[in-house]
Write a structure and sequence with these properties.
About 75% of the residues lie in helices and about 0% in strands. The two termini are about 40 Å apart. By secondary structure, the chain is mainly alpha-helical.
Length: about 230
């Protein structure tokens, strides 16, 4: 009966494959205005499948960097509007492609890869890659707070940046990497062939099929219109 349920959390592998599909399709269609239409509809579509927070976080940098690089391309190619549109679509494709992956927790992706009996090296690499950005963000915030508490000054000063920000941050990341390696080892995570079980399995539901078919339908329709 779990198959017939409608859930907002995407199946991890489907989310990963859709990210790749959005990126490739966006880059191929970047020179057309229909790519902009596709990216807009994709963002709205993703909001219906539990990605609203990811879309909310992605929109500001997408507008900022997309607009900045589009402006650079516009003047670099002699006030060429098509070049600006192409650059904006390329940047937008990268940011929109990140959204499905951001909506999937690292533990769910690891569980799903283990469930599908993927190589343990790939599973461990995906776990570390997905867990690292929030850890890095948290450590940067802690170092900045420590700088404010001590009255270290502006981080824009090269000397202050190096001694009060960069060195403590690198030191913290080294400690975290040591702790992570010990944590993986104590939990019995090995790269060699060994039997293991998955306690909580990921299940494809109707909502996952609606999501992937809807996304593919948008791509096909816009390709036919083009």
């Amino acid at each position: 009966m779990r198959f017939f349920s409608f859930k907002q959390n995407l199946y991890p592998i489907i989310a990963l494959l859709s990210s790749i599909g959005i990126l490739v399709y966006g880059l191929l269609m970047a020179k057309t205005y229909l790519c902009s239409v596709f990216l807009l509809f994709a963002l709205v579509f993703l909001c219906f499948f539990g990605c609203f927070k990811a879309v909310f976080h992605v929109l500001p940098p997408m507008i900022l960097f997309g607009g900045m690089f589009a402006l650079i391309a516009y003047f670099a190619y002699g006030r060429d509007g098509s070049a600006a549109l192409s650059m904006a679509n390329r940047m937008g494709s990268v940011f929109v492609a990140v959204v499905p992956g951001m909506s999937v927790e690292a533990v769910r992706m690891t569980r799903n890869l283990s469930q599908l009996r993927m190589p343990r090296g790939l599973t461990l690499g995906m776990l570390i890659a997905m867990s690292f950005p929030p850890v890095l963000s948290g450590e940067i915030r802690r170092v900045r707070e420590a700088m404010k508490t001590r009255g270290a000054g502006s981080v824009l000063n090269p000397k202050i940046f190096y001694r009060a920000f960069l060195i403590p941050l690198v030191s913290r990341l080294v400690d975290i990497s040591d702790t992570l390696s010990l944590s993986v080892e104590t939990r019995g995570f090995t790269l060699s062939k060994a039997k293991y079980t998955v306690y909580k399995r990921e299940v494809i539901c109707v909502s996952d099929l609606i999501y992937i078919f809807g996304l593919v339908a948008m791509m096909v329709v816009l390709a036919v219109v083009l």
